[in-house]
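Project channel, design review

CF: Before we commit to the Flammeovirga yaeyamensis constructs, I'd like one complete example in the thread so the newer folks can see what an input/output pair looks like. Taking Helix-turn-helix domain-containing protein.
RD: sounds good, go ahead.
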Amino acid sequence: MKKFKELCKIVNFILWNDVYRINFFGIFNKDKFLEMEDKYTFETSEHTVHGSYEKFAKDLKGTWDGEELNIDTGWCTYRGHSFCFLEEMYVGIFELNSKKPITVKYEPDDGKTYISIRIGFTGSFFSKGDTKKFHNLGVFIYNSSQQFEIELPHGAKYEYVTIRFSVDFFNKFTRENANSKIKALFQNKTPWFHYLPLDVEIENCVRTIIANVDKDKRRDIYFFSKALDIVGIIQEKLEQESTHIKKNIHPEDLKAMMQLKDEYLSNFTEQPNLSELSDEFGMSISKLNRIFKSIFDQPILQFYKQQKVEEVYRQIIYTDKSLTEISMDLNFSDNAHMSNVFKKYYGYAPSELKDKKDTGKLK
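CF: and here is what came back for Helix-turn-helix domain-containing protein:
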């Protein structure tokens, strides 16, 4: 009995002590332990972009050569390209497919103020042999003072583009006497966060970046120029908006609402159930709507419906589907229902947009 208790103490020590977990006879090595965990957590800041990729690659036995990231663990494949321009602007494109959640924690830093723009794309969840489409589009803008966690979608192919630059870098490209919302926002060191829908104009810039990622001779020009175009488009949108930028958002609220958006408002075949969401997040429907609106400017269902009608527009532009196929895929009751919703939002029928695309008259 005494020997058994001593053995239990040794095993307990091995399981909880990091050094022995890694080294004890090679049994509890770090990689195996990570595979046993439910999720992988990575801490970083906006000031150490390429250093973070180097650490990420080292942790997961991948490679990072200063521009290209490659990781393949068996439970996670992660591919990325990131380029630094003029020492203070980073533009990257990444593709992730992970079998378990990856949580990235962004910690504030006392150094230069950086602005980050993260642009998410669509993908597919895989569950029980079936494919369930999900919608992860959006433009997320925040400064390096904003602390938050983001849990990347798992069981899915997830693509995103990042643009990061210092405020000093941005000021080099703006007139000193320029009086704009974006300049005032970027110079504000208070933690802030802002969301914009991914419209076709920004998406076209992103698609140009993607199309040139493997073209060595010209990708630098496209990565840099299209990133600046995106910043310019965002500037125009901020000048037109009447909404206020979200400041001092509690990190847990931001994390929860990002999770709600990505995991529960992404399936357009079924409208979200607010009662179920209330139970899932442990708060009343009114509180859930209030916190969600404080970040995304709309209550949950209104936001969902807007995203859905914007997906109609996107599928007309970027796919060869018929209007009937789009209507069925997005779970409208029929074409007339989809047309009425679309016309109410855009001011014209989806058939008009499709005719312009089919006849090459789309600008």
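RD: helpful, thanks. The longest helix spans residues 219-240.
CF: Confidence is low (pLDDT under 50) at residues 9-36, 123-134.
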